[in-house]
Amino acid sequence: MLANHGLASAILGGYQLNGQLSHYSGEPFSVTASNTVNSPGNTLYASLVKPFTHPNGHNRTPGNTAITNGLPWFDPTAFANPVEPTYTAGQLPSSIAAPVFGGTHRNEFRGPGQTLLNASFFRSFHIFRESDFQLRAEAFNVLNHATVSICGFPQGSTGNVCSVADNSSTLGYITSFGPTRTLQFSGRISF
User: Fold this and answer.
1) Roughly how many angstroms between the first and final C-alpha of the chain, as a whole number?
2) What separation in angstroms does the CA of 171 have from each of 25, 66, 151, 178?
3) Series of mean pLDDT values for 10-residue runs along the chain (191 residues)
4) How many CA atoms lie within 13 A of 115 on its CB side?
5) Is the separation of the CB atoms in 149 and 177 below 8 Å?
6) CA gap 80, 82 in Å, rounded
């Protein structure tokens, strides 16, 4: 511990180092159907026709097909539109299949998670009586981890929905990513 006065205190004192480590699970999302199966105007969720898997794990490189080999983040073939039963004239009512609604529900799945490390470094200088000047350097997302999103919704949004109608283009793929490392420098006078 340094004394509050003297050369050593002037050179080595007044520093402050702060850090924050956060790990988040992915944003919840839903997969909706592109048909309405007897419920026009309502949201109909897709049917899960095989297990929900991540064939490419947590690879966080949007658009980099050299690393992802063009694979989606989750398997889009695991979802399908619910099948509307067919009816032919003369069929007995008891032999008509009931409509099949999607087997998934709202926000059942989670997108890619993220880990963020934020840090700050402060140095205070005594100016006069109760007045101090503080130099501040702050870094957000120090490790520069990509914060990715799937199906076009931005990280941190609510009501995230992927649609089976997107099966050929974006369903299951990482489509965008959030802010990268940010540095901020400032000064502050306290009196």
Assistant:
1) 26
2) 20, 19, 6, 19
3) 62 86 83 72 82 68 48 80 71 63 83 87 88 93 80 57 67 75 93 87
4) 4
5) yes
6) 6
